[in-house]
Amino acid sequence: MRVIASIALMICVIYGVCSTVIPSDLDTYLFPWIAHIRAAGAVDAFGGPFGNYTPPYLYLLAIGTLLTDNSLVIVKALSTISCGFAAIAVWRFVRIERNSIEAAAMSLLLPTMIIDGPVLGQCDGIWVALCLLSVAAAIEGRMLPMVIWCGIAFAFKAQAAFIAPFVLTMLLQRRANIVLWIVPPAIYCIAMLPAWLVGWPATDLATIYLRQAEYFTTIGSSPGLWAIGAAILPREPTDLFMIGYAAGVIFSAIYVASLCRRRLSREQMIEAALLSALALPFLLPKMLERFTLLADLLALSLAFISPKRVNGAVATAVIGASSTGYIAYWAEIYWLPIIGCVVNVWVLFELSKRLFRPTATWLESSEF
Question: Is the entire prediction scored with pTM above 0.90?
Answer without folding.
Answer: yes
